[in-house]
Amino acid sequence: MTLVDAYLGALKLMESTGPRSLHQTAAFIAPNPALVEEHELRAHLAAADPNDQLRRALSLRLAIFDHHAEDAAWTEDTPPNTRERREVILRILEVEEDTAVLLNGLIPIANLEEPIVIAEKWTPWYTESIKRSRDFYWQHYSESLQAAPHLDADAVAALDKATDRVVERLADPTGAEAYQAKGLVVGYVQSGKTANFTGVIAKAIDAGYRLIIVLSGTTDLLRTQTQRRLDMELVGQENLLRGIKLDDEAALDATDYVGKDPDWDRFVRHGVRPSDGGGSDLYRLTKKSFDYKSLEVGISTLDFPKRERHLPFFDPANLFAGYSRLAVVKKNSRVLEKLVADLNKITTRLEEVPTLIIDDESDQASVNTSKPKPLSAEAKKKRSAINGHIAELLRMLPRAQYVGYTATPFANVFIDPNDTADIFPKNFLIALPSGSGYMGARDFHDLTLDIPLDERTVENSAEKAHVRIVNEDEKKRDADLQKALDTFVLTGAVKLYREKLGHGPFRHHTMLYHVASQRDAHREQRAQVKEMWDRSGYRSASCFERLRGLYEKDIFPVTRRPDGGVAPSTFDDLVPFIGDTVNRIEKTGHPVLVVNSDKIEGEELDFATDPHVWRVLVGGNKLARGFTVEGLTVSYYLRQSRQADTMMQMGRWFGYRAGYRDLVRLYTTQALFDEFEDICQDEEFFRDELRQYAPFGADGEPQITPSQIPPLVAQHHPKIKPTAANKMYNARIEQRRTPMKEPSSGYPLISDGTSLQNNTRAFLPLLSSAVAHPEVLDLDGRPFNILSTRLTNEELVSILSQLRWGKEDSFRPDLNFLRQAKPDLIADWHVVLPQLKGQDAQVTIEGVGPLSVHRRRVINGKLQAKSQPADRSLVQPIANRAGSTRGGMLLYPMVPKDAAAQGELSLSDVVMAFTLFLPQASGATDRKLITWATKDDSLPDYALVSV
Asked: I need a surface site. Which of 345, 452, 534, 731 has the fewest CB within 10 A?
């Protein structure tokens, strides 16, 4: 035994005991106490690199102690991640002063962001005692993470904490009363959600959950990737082999991975059969290449035999002697039908089986989109197919816990919370922080940068460093695609240069070409990219001057940033690596790989078994959600969507880019980039709101519960809704803060004289004031007649509150905002009535006049009540002035185009149409244009209003 072994053993012991004397514990473990002199420990740590086994183990243990909640006695009530907590830890470890100084220098205090938790009150059951006594799968999973070179100790400690927050809110699997918790875990796109739910599954099995169902998206590609990852990091070699000897070739042919997967040696080793080591043997009901199939004769594979037949299965005497089952299934109606049918055949009473359902990408396919109207109990029985199967699983398994995972939660939070059979996260919503090294919105968008545009550079601007704008004109994009391909080659060469210097390795290197979702277009795009590749001349020196300019102006300057990596200082030093890069990209004879349900020349994307995927990937939906594109460095993205969650999920450039984040580039149009910035603002705002309301109040009660979350959803782009309309039938717009309001489609029908009369009467006081103030303006040398007046925001709201609308929800969200606006945002309004030339246009309305009426066409009984662009200059500049609290209003009494001229109009003859321009101050704080709320069943069935 060495010094390293002794101290590793001491740290291992502290997993279950908490901090204790480091030197004394190591001396107790070592056969000879002389092996563990503390000065030798310091010498070892001082000379060790960050990946040294002992240094990593110490980093992890200190990070976990730093981050531990204050509920353990040893913490002495010191707050997590503080100097006071670290002092307590080092005092309990009883290290010498020189050792303490060294440890503080080598292992700084972990600054870990806590998950944001919105939850109902619950009865704690997942105690430290349970965690310490039942940690077989979590222990081996966390050890595999500790060995991963791309994860530091802080990341593992943060994952431990975050998974605790989920597991503790599930029901106690040994509880006498069946209870079904439902929750939602929100991560960022490509930010480690799979790592989180793998850890949750590990801890859940250790705690006693015996049936694990993972719903892994809608594609085979994602299901296979998820199955392999769980098999590698959780299931482990012993459960996969089931006693098969590695030299039994015939038996191994029927197994996954052995002899087929180059990473077999990286699969978790438990050392023993789990049931012999204090764990539960884990049986897979699905395999890497096979989704769930009807078991028929082998139905016993799904059964849960009892050791003590007179006791329920959830009794500890049966539960901790029982096997566990794992099914990783695609969200496909036929697959789920088979699973439901087989569960109905097993002999164990389903109400006795503690079950965990993990729903990956839970906003896709899982949400009920049957759109019941009205939201009655009877209508709710109608469900879309996948949602219906999930509801059936939850009905059959009363001890099932449902945990959805997504990066785009808006579809889930708008599920009807009163529908008890559905998947609304009634018990908890947990928002995970992004991990260290994650490239997210702030790495591509200058969301909070105060530097003027003309002073931004690759050194101080995320956009300048990583984003390249593509021409809006499709016919002029060849040059942009050429630069993207050149960047792909150059960044691949830089990766090979870094590998030669000992950085890396970089197993995969990919470029994403995402322009359309249609499969028919992908073959054509494949040919277009190949044609451009062939013209690029990468196999001759003819391309070098072009590549030299791009390297010197684009690639090399970004590597000089603080987060950059090593790179050749001259292009000539990079040239030797370009040939190898091109060889790898052309390895199969074609640089482009289409990723969709069509097979082209038998090719298939498989990052697991292919040692080097260096390709341009052309695809659509298969690459747009959940699936991790390994080694993604260059993205050429031009696909549009009108739903924020769909767009965000297509942002595959977000993610972890260990060792090459400085090489990442996004090629897109300015319009698409601006839209992405708006939906990133939606995400940031939602998290900020959750963070604000997460702490429990002084009375121990939550400030808000999951059912009260929807009003925290905001929309920063007027045309991009949070999610698809058929996922938001339970939602309505709460406030609309668009800078211009023109509710032209919402006015009553011209046949609805009662409503028109009501509306005109509401405006009469304003009209009376305006006719007393005629003006003649000089607009570009020509006279322009107007009537005008001013009124406070309170006075305007009083008028608008009296109006009736063709659709109930047409103006309510706008009025809600105006009603709550404070005077420092909207003080008053400058109202203008544009007047027409000629006496024949002058009328009176109920004796108020003279004034002009404006004629518009009528289509399907509705007046086309639009303002004139030229008229907007009369009021818009007033509202747009920096810091202005005065809004502008255009008011048009309108009549049908073919209406007879009248000198006197009645109240029911006129449509009182208006356009509002909100003052600049009203939208300056957070840029939220729209906020949403959940409908109440007692209210009318509002429709979603297009903005």
From this structure: 452
CB 390 within 8 A of CB 339: no
Residues of the chain with pLDDT > 90, as a percent, come to 58
- For residue 947, what pLDDT is reported? 31
Rounded to the nearest integer, the mean pLDDT of the chain is 89
What are 36-47's pLDDT values in tens digits?
889 999 999 999
Measured distance CA(634)–CA(493) in Å, rounded: 13
Domain count, the chain: 4
CA atoms within 13 A on the CB side of 469: 11
Q: Tell me: the pLDDT tens digits for 557-574?
A: 999 999 999 999 999 999
- Looking at the domain assignment, is residue 587 inside a domain? yes
Which of 77-81, 200-204, 471-475 ranks highest by mean pLDDT?
200-204
101: containing domain: 1-111
Contact of 410 with 645, CB cutoff 8 Å: yes
91 with 182, same domain: the answer is no
Specify the DSSP class assigned to residue 606.
-
User: For 344-369, b where at least 16 C-beta lie within 10 A, e where not — what string?
Assistant: eebebebebbbbbbbbbbbbbbbbbb
Q: Please indicate, yes or no, if residue 732 is contained in any of the structural domains.
A: no
Do 639 and 786 sit in the same domain of this protein? no
Q: Which one, of 515, 457, 510, lies nearest residue 481 by Cα?
A: 515
Report the C-alpha gap between 905 and 902 in whole angstroms. Answer: 6
Same domain, 417 and 535: no
Q: What pLDDT score was predicted for residue 735?
A: 86
* 557 occurs within a structural domain: yes
* Domain identity same for 490 and 596: yes
Sheet strands side by side (includes 355-360): 116-119, 428-431, 182-186, 400-406, 355-360, 211-216, 324-329, 282-284
Does 481 share its domain with 407? no
Between the two ends of the chain, the Cα-to-Cα distance in Å is: 71
Q: Is 905 helix (H, G, I), strand (E, B) or coil?
A: strand
CA distance 575 to 716: 46
| Euclidean distance between CA atoms 499 and 303, whole angstroms | 50
CA–CA distance, 440 with 444 (Å, rounded to integer): 7
CA-to-CA dists, residue 319 to 211, 328, 648, angstroms: 11, 22, 41
Residue 315 near residue 358 (C-beta atoms within 8 A):
no
Identity (one letter) of the amino acid at 921?
A
Q: What pLDDT score does 283 carry?
A: 95
3-state SS assignment for residue 326: strand
Q: How many percent of the chain have pLDDT more than 70? A: 96
